[in-house]
């Protein structure tokens, strides 16, 4: 059997839901999908509209992720379980990263309770934890927040556990969007080690903030 | 969105296409129980395995395009050859930073076991075929191939391997993988600085002020028996600690799953005066390389839109492929002669558990037994007759199959262990309903077989004494909280070791899994263990040997016996589900002169 062309293989699997959706987008985007960066964007980064704790309206991909080094975690203001520890940890991470946060490294915490966590609630939460510029707490339409959570893999494979917010995923993703480098560490890990881990996806020496 | 039923039908149709392409008839399907009452093939079975997340379809991985199995002959990895002219710059005991080396510590055994052979291996990008139906795949391989070349080493012959990191810059990774590497020689009884510790990564793209920034890293493998500098000095080590089947793979902290999935893995075989590689001598095991065949298993997904290997970047629990690769090809065939062969089975993950059976589709009720001779590459006290082998990520199982009884037939290596998410296997499927990963065509010429019938082997090695009183018993609970994989409630951290073992002492480690939701293959570097108990009772015969991976199953407690000798320094213990290990289910411990008595580090 000869080699199946890309077009033919698309035809064969054309009915598969995810692949089908991507195939349609490939048509629209022309050559866009030939880039692996674009594949990652279309698979994982829905460009939903969000509101920061400072009341700014932003697009997830265009304004938060694109061209940046980022950390991503999910939390909610009333969370009495792992959230306070993780937020305190991340505050130490922000301090250690210094002025790079807000320049080329951005930290994002997304609420799991958008109904309750208005920008004002998140602003109070951020102030309570001494959050500095460059670290945003984000809320939005509940359906968009849920889509984001699923796309970014903050999901428990057990649907019952997944429904229980107190057992929500406590990992922190870190990544470099243009370099297509993504990994994650536990939010309760040693903050100094989290800082070093973020360094794994840093720019090459001499570029932007890279050493 | 497609309904679950539609999806099932689609899977069934795909399976049917692949089964027909593989040469099965509808009658075979019926015989194999693969047709449902509705006339569809049984979903999630057949030649491909599906991986679905239980939370729905949208977040699921893509489905690989169809491929025709059993078309290509099994690939054999080339045997790695030593360099013919001296390495430049010459290897040094201390790290050669100015010469471009990314090592951070001096070689411990450079003078006691000076290298007799020198190798140079390059990690680099390549484009390779894994199936005639697919485009060339962008991989990272040792010497640009995956699996990498097979090292053939001998006890008493120390070697030095110069790893040269020639991977492309970060932004040219093709979507996953970090061009920063640490090559672990799995189960090597060797010094820490040559172990391939996850924190000893190096490369030309590390930070300017990081001593690990460098082009190469020299790894010194003394190839010595445990006890050589301690309990068994007079005999140059304890022969009963002989290792046979090792493997090497990238172990870069946080990025191991991506880099191994991308291809950075291969075999390292160690022979001695008994396990000689020649069936006319020693234990008379089938001769290498003609009848002693390493088999490296990996499961992957091909993204149908890009045509390239797909890695699910944001998965925390484990990644399953729907295509099975053996020695770098999807479902190859292997033409064998009607005689005995030794196979060295290795599961490189990232997350899948297998249970391999020999299946004759024309006689599904037959139990085709074979011999298991080693577990984790270490010869068992004697061969054990088995009907199957269970293998989790990083385990190795050496088996002997006698094909003389199948002359003229085709039989299959079938994985009957169903697994639908990355955390654990499900149950065992009926014969013929699992995944056929490799076809043996017993159509090769009749050739002499001078290997011994395993039934006649009464002993390989004795088990080393395991009755000594442990200096300390340490307990480790492997668990998950809020999606975070942890050991005793703590997480991986390269900046510190969690406990210290006193050199030349005996310890007992207890590994616990209190969950029915996942299983963990736990690997401890450097020293092998003997499994004293599995859930309070003696382990099954195939685990009554020396091992380096403990398959920690549902709600289990495993007791391990260790004796630490010969070298000092830091080593890790971790879950070898590569996704768990990359998400911090790992710790560092250290061997030194004093040790500590921390019972729950």
Give short descriptive properties of this protein.
heterodimer, A: 211 residues, alpha/beta, Glutaredoxin, 2 domains, 18% strand, B: 601 residues, mainly beta, Immunoglobulin-like, six-stranded mixed beta sheet, 32 strands, globular
Q: CATH topology of the largest domain in chain B, which one?
A: Immunoglobulin-like
Number of domains of chain A: 2
Order of helices and strands of chain A: HHHEEHEHEHEHHEEH
Residue windows where pLDDT falls under 50 for at least 5 positions of chain A: 1-33
Counting DSSP H or I runs of 4 or more residues, the number of helices of chain B is: 4
Mean pLDDT of chain B: 93
The best one-word shape of chain B is globular
CATH homologous superfamily designation of the largest domain in chain B:
Cupredoxins -  blue copper proteins
Low-pLDDT segments of chain B: 37-59
Distance between the termini of chain B: 48 Å
Annotation, overall tally of beta strands of chain A: 7
* CATH homology-level superfamily of the largest domain in chain A: Glutaredoxin
Label the structural class of chain B: mainly beta
What is the first-to-last residue Cα distance of chain A? Answer: 51 Å
Approximate shape of chain A = globular
The radius of gyration of chain A is 19 Å
Number of strands of chain B: 32
Biggest beta-sheet profile of chain A: 7 strands, mixed
